[in-house]
Specification:
Elements: E1 2-4, E2 7-9, E3 18-22, E4 25-29, H1 36-46, E5 54-58, H2 64-67, H3 70-77, E6 80-83, H4 85-93, H5 105-117, E7 127-128, E8 134-135, E9 141-145, E10 154-158, E11 163-167, E12 170-173, E13 176-179, H6 188-199, E14 205-208
Parallel strand pairs: 4-5, 5-6, 6-7, 11-14
Antiparallel strand pairs: 1-2, 2-3, 3-4, 8-9, 9-10, 10-11, 12-13
Length: 224
């Protein structure tokens, strides 16, 4: 689904991946669960591109549903992979960058079973993402440190288009937005602070890690 010119949401994948079309090739933000690479590559093909046209993969954080397809996509495309140093260390170990905090026995058992049944292939990233770094996509895509959901979580903001790729620091329900909270949030105070930072950006479009894209996002990002 094209969001704006040269920015696509790839549907049907748990944890939304986004594709940015650039003159020098394609950039992907996040990669879904293991096996999601097949749907992502099919979408790329429908746009008329080959796997080798995927040049860069940007990772918001190292949770299973955001890096599950990463190793397979890199193998298929040769794309360079970038993540925050904390998340990169977790990717190299094939694990999350923080422990989950389930509040009841059922949730705890569900998390444990999922971690045993579905695993991420460990791999080394090609480069690190740091706060304030400027990437070439969309006329300038700024890396934002947005810790809280995980310790090294990052988001990406294009000032020229008003598009914010928020990962799981912001998710949507319908057209409503909220910050990270609950058992999968590493540090709630940091998550709330990251939310305020993003609210101040004045993003017009929020592309969240979960839930639909919010096209008229001005003023919709809560500050707490």
């Amino acid at each position: 689904m094209e969001i704006i010119q040269n920015v696509h949401h790839i549907p049907g994948v748990m944890a939304n991946p986004y594709l940015v079309i650039c003159p020098e090739g394609l950039t992907l933000v996040d990669t879904g669960l293991p096996g999601s690479q097949r749907r992502i590559l099919r979408y790329i093909a429908r746009l008329g591109y080959q796997p080798a046209d995927l040049k860069r993969i940007l990772i918001t954080h190292a949770d299973l549903d955001h890096v599950g397809g990463l190793a397979a996509l890199k193998a298929a495309s040769g794309a360079k992979v970038y993540a925050h140093p904390i998340e990169a260390e977790a990717i190299a170990a094939g694990r999350s960058s923080r422990e989950l905090k389930p509040r009841n026995l059922l949730t705890r058992l569900t998390f444990r079973l999922t971690s045993q049944l579905v695993r991420v292939s460990p791999m080394q990233v090609d480069g690190f993402l740091n706060d304030g770094q400027e990437l070439p996509e969309l006329g300038g895509l700024r890396v934002l440190a947005t810790p809280g959901h995980t310790p090294g979580h990052v988001s990406f903001f294009s000032e020229s288009t008003g598009v914010l790729f928020s990962g799981d620091s912001i998710v949507s329900r319908g057209q409503a937005l909220r910050g990270s909270q609950g058992a999968n949030t590493w540090d709630q105070a940091k998550a709330d602070s990251s939310l305020k930072t993003q609210a101040a950006l004045g993003a017009r479009i929020v592309c969240p890690g979960h839930g639909p894209v919010v096209l008229n996002a001005a003023g919709k990002i809560p500050t707490a």
